[in-house]
Amino acid sequence: MLDIKFVRENPEKVKENIRKKFQDAKLPLVDEVLELDVKYRAALTEGNDLRAARNALSKQVGVLMGQAKKDPSKLEEAEKVKAQVKADADRLAELEKAAAAMSERIRTIMLTIPNIIDDSVPIGPDDSCNVEVERFGEPVVPDFPIPYHTEIMESFDGVDMDAAGRVSGNGFYYLMGDIARLHSAVLAYARDFMIGKGFTYCIPPFMIHGNVVEGVMSQTDMDAMMYKIEGEDLYLIGTSEHSMIGKFIDQMIPESKLPQTLTSYSPCFRKEKGAHGIEERGVYRIHQFEKQEMIVVCKPEDSMMWFDKLWQNTVDLFRSMDIPVRTIECCSGDLADLKVKSVDVEAWSPRQKKYFEVGSCSNLGDAQARRLRIRVSGENGKYFPHTLNNTVVAPPRMLIAFLENNLQADGSIRIPEVLRPYMHKDIIKP
Fold first, then answer.
1. Rounded Cα–Cα distance for residues 54 and 171 (Å)
2. 59-110: per-residue pLDDT in tens?
3. 132 strand-pairing partners
4. What is the DSSP letter of 114?
5. Tell me, what's the pLDDT at 277?
6. Alpha helices, DSSP H only, in 334-386?
7. How far is it, in rounded angstroms, from Cα 297 to Cα 316?
8. Which residues contact 9 (CB under 8 A, 6 or more apart)?
């Protein structure tokens, strides 16, 4: 969410940013919010003047009533002043009601206007305009066929989609045996990997209040992703970023406590509406999964430095498991409204002979902090910090890349050295 003062001072910049995001339908909102802002501030000024006048007139009534004991003519004057006090009170009530309505509409608009994207973001309407930045590791296509990921898992009796369908419906799964162990091993390794990077390990709440949801994501994303608990002001998290950033709601953080560098484990729950192709079936696009996340709360001047550190962590993690990856710069039209800049990490699929997304790193500027009223108390005053988030690893999607890249010709799975302390073996066999 932008600062209304920024919109006041830079309306054309705000409009140009909307155009860059190919959201022209939102352009009228800028003029509307500026007009409302003028009226709102005028209402506040008039209200303050009326309160001051009311106080002065109320004192005058008291004086006149005292004088009326000796001079009855003062009584009529006192009644006139009383009438003015009542008229002012009625007008004040009217102004307060109007101001409250304007304030609510202003907030709604400000939640809708997208954040200002970084100058480095490529311009384009959708993900077809995303730009490859760099590749890490050599993508290899073996000289033997790579089965579909659920077929690989089934060869180890490691997945049961049918049973999950009977129990929970489509978009769920049972992982079993060595595949389940591998899933947990990857998460444990990712946890220790991030602790080794100096991050503090957390297990957050898996449900959050609606005001936290509103603070961390746009209404559009909220409607598309979140499951709401019936009859409760609680939502199941779609990523632990939501509750980790929410941890600081309404808090004043001493500048000496920055940066906050946290890595968190959680299950994640997402609606994942819409039809998807075969490559997004199986355990690729599902309603429930587990994830290791990383978030940073930092000084504004440090956020781009942390942004580069965060996506590099994911690259390093995947490369340590012998999985080739690449980074993709998200274009303007592919950025969620709160994001300033975002990079996706994609893993190589030998079966598809292409890369696919396994993580996303985002810099949200001060948008989340402003929405959640997270402030920093520093030497030069109070300010909103910047927030960032990035996926460390999200199995079982990550398992697709892992299984395909570590599959051997005999159907076994090679366990990279970094995972052997967690798996207690160097190979798993069907």
1. 63
2. 666 665 666 666 666 666 666 766 777 787 888 999 999 999 999 999 999 9
3. 328
4. P
5. 52
6. 367-372
7. 22
8. none
Instruction: Decide if 326 contacts 133 (C-beta within 8 A).
Output: yes
Where do the structural domains in the chain lie, given as residue ranges? 4-112, 127-428
CB 292 within 8 A of CB 191: yes
- Cα–Cα distance, 106 to 125 (Å, whole number): 27
Pairing of strands 174-175, 159-160: antiparallel
Cα separation, 253 vs 383, in Å, equals 10
Please answer whether residues 397 and 283 qualify as being in contact, where contact means their C-beta atoms are separated by less than 8 angstroms: yes
81, 57 contact by CB (below 8 A) = yes
Tokens of 77: 């004057």
* Residues 206/236, Cβ–Cβ less than 8 Å: yes
Identify the burial level of 200 via C-beta atoms within 10 angstroms of its C-beta, where 0-12 means exposed, 13-18 middle and 19 or more buried: exposed
pTM reported for the whole predicted model: 0.89
Q: Which two tokens stand for residue 49?
A: 């003047």
- Distance between CA 319 and CA 160 in Å, rounded? 29
Q: Could you please state the CATH topology (level 3) that the domain comprising 127-428 is classified under.
A: BirA Bifunctional Protein; domain 2 (3.30.930)
Q: What is the phi/psi pair of residue 390, to 5°? A: -160, 145
Q: What is the mean pLDDT of residues 254-270?
A: 97
Q: d(Cα 22, Cα 114) in Å, to the nearest integer?
A: 11
Query: How many angstroms separate the CA atoms of 146 and 167, rounded?
Result: 30
Helix (H) or strand (E) holding 242: helix 240-246
Helix (H) or strand (E) holding 276: none
Q: Which helix (H) or strand (E) holds 389?
A: strand 386-393
Closest by CA position to 397, among listed 226, 220, 259, 239: 239
SS3 42: helix
Residue type, 106: I
* DSSP β-bridge partners for residue 160: 174
End-to-end CA distance of the chain: 52
- Cα separation values, 347 from 148, 190, 276, 292, Å: 16, 16, 19, 17
Mean pLDDT (the chain, rounded): 92
CATH 1.20.1330.10 fits 4-112, yes or no: no
* Helix spans in 21-131 (H): 27-68, 73-112
Half-sphere exposure of residue 177, counting CA atoms within 13 Å on the CB side? 12
Facing residues of 375 across strands? 252
